[in-house]
């Protein structure tokens, strides 16, 4: 069993560092000093993909490179078996990575982390993912489970909603559905803490993490609202690991069999074509 005291200390430190990330204003981190950004798709506890990402990122050898991660929790269990969800291990590892590279590792809020904060149950393949997550934690941490879970909630509540670069690329978990845009209160982007109503259906935090609208009109309107030209998002599964959703948006997926990242310059002019060409896919089937 991992040492619960060490886990608590690491997660608490990562939470503090997340709120104090250089370039952060409210719930957006601006990477003004970055040379290059590497964005990873939804991981959902995918440790093999995370190890691959760490090797590819080589943060120790590239001091100008920043790493953006998302959606760590709730393992994909396509076999619908009774094995525990151990995706909390990825939360611990990313917390340690944040402590090691506090200025250059950025975890953005995903809808699955938000569901843990709000207590909204997510069901998939006939399973309640939140309950599986807690059972996995109980197996690993025993009596310390509740205390560590509260530390996780503190970390998730401290996460930025978005990361942006000087060349006008905006990284968030998803794009709000068009039907919400007229009344969307984006003041949460400038806020350090989110009002409870913003995390419910129709609220801005909910919309930025749960949206699936890739229509041209929607992406153009949202681009004007956040003053960006291009978007790299996750949230939606991609059969080939990534998908160009429209003329502004690249969707990437970090789950098997094709976990994906894109790595691009934070300073050179960017286009949707340059983002797509920066994609790299790990073929888990071949690797195994």
Automatic annotation (TrEMBL):
Which superkingdom? Bacteria
Single GO cellular component term: cytoplasm
**Keywords of this entry:** Hydrolase, Manganese, Metal-binding, Protein phosphatase
TM segment ranges: none
Task: Look up keyword Metal-binding and say if it applies.
Answer: yes
Name of the protein in question: protein-serine/threonine phosphatase
UniProt xrefs under InterPro entries: Calcineurin-like_PHP, Metallo-depent_PP-like, PP1_catalytic_subunit
EC assignment: the record states 3.1.3.16
Which GO terms of the molecular function aspect are on file?
metal ion binding; protein serine/threonine phosphatase activity
Q: Which residues form the Calcineurin-like phosphoesterase domain?
A: 37-238
Ranges in a coiled coil: none
Q: Which organism is it from?
A: Paludisphaera borealis
């Amino acid at each position: 069993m991992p040492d619960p005291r060490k886990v608590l200390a690491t997660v608490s430190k990562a939470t503090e560092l997340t709120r104090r990330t250089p370039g952060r204003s409210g719930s957006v981190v601006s990477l003004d000093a970055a040379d290059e950004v590497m964005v990873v798709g939804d991981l959902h506890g995918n440790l093999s993909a995370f190890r691959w990402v760490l090797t590819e990122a080589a943060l120790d050898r590239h001091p100008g490179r920043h790493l953006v991660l998302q959606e760590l929790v709730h393992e994909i269990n396509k076999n619908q078996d009774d094995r525990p969800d151990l995706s909390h291990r990825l939360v611990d590892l990313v917390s340690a990575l944040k402590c090691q590279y506090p200025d250059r590792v950025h975890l953005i809020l995903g809808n699955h982390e938000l569901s843990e904060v709000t207590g909204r149950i997510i069901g998939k393949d006939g399973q309640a993912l939140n309950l599986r997550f807690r059972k996995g934690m109980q197996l690993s941490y025993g009596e310390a489970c509740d205390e560590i879970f509260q530390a996780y909630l503190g970390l998730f509540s401290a996460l930025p909603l978005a990361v942006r670069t000087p060349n006008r690329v905006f990284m968030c978990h998803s794009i709000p559905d068009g039907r919400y845009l007229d009344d969307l209160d984006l003041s949460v982007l400038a806020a350090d803490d989110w009002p409870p109503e913003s995390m419910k259906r129709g609220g801005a935090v909910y919309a930025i993490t749960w949206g699936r609208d890739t229509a041209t009109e929607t992406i153009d309107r949202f681009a004007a609202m956040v003053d960006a030209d291009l978007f790299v998002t996750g949230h939606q599964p991609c059969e080939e690991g990534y998908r160009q959703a429209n003329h502004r948006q690249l969707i990437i997926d970090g789950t098997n069999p094709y976990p994906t990242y894109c790595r691009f310059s934070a300073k050179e002019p960017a286009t949707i074509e340059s983002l797509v060409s920066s994609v790299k896919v790990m073929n888990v089937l071949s690797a195994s």
